[in-house]
């Protein structure tokens, strides 16, 4: 999790499928939203699947979620297969 410029371990999942399920579960407390984006390193198909799973959580169309390949810093530290999302919450 990256919050206020600090990167911390949110959870440890056993296996890739469990980790992807954890990502979707992390979306729940972040509604309503202004924007969401899925980021990946060399795993665009999985990024598309994540966007499909997140769309109903956030109440948006799957096609409205941008999917981008991460920048060099995250790619260097995470390596191929890195997958995540960023969200901007609506002010409450």
Q: Can you lay out the helices and strands and say which pair or pack?
A:
Blueprint: E1 2-3, E2 6-7, H1 16-27, E3 33-40, H2 44-58, E4 67-69, H3 72-78, E5 83-89
Parallel strand pairs: 3-4
Antiparallel strand pairs: 1-2, 3-5
What does this structure look like?
With 92 residues, the protein is α+β, with helices and mostly antiparallel strands. It has helices at residues 16-27, 44-58, 72-78, and strands at residues 2-3, 6-7, 33-40, 67-69, 83-89. The strands form 2 sheets. It has a 3-stranded mixed beta sheet, covered by helices on one side. A two-stranded antiparallel sheet has the order 1-2. The protein is globular, with a radius of gyration of 13 Å.
Q: What distinguishing features does this structure have?
A:
single chain; 92 residues; alpha+beta; three-stranded mixed beta sheet; 37% helix; globular
The residue ranges in which pLDDT falls below 50 over 5 or more consecutive positions are: none
Distance between the termini: 21 Å
| Structural class by helix and strand composition | alpha+beta
Number of helices: 3
Strand percent estimate: 15-25%
Which percent bin holds the helix content?
25-40%
Global shape: globular
Cα radius of gyration in angstroms: 13 Å
Largest sheet: 3 strands, mixed
Mean residue pLDDT: 88
Please provide the count of β strands: 5
Strand order of the largest sheet: 4-3-5
What is the H/E string?
A: EEHEHEHE
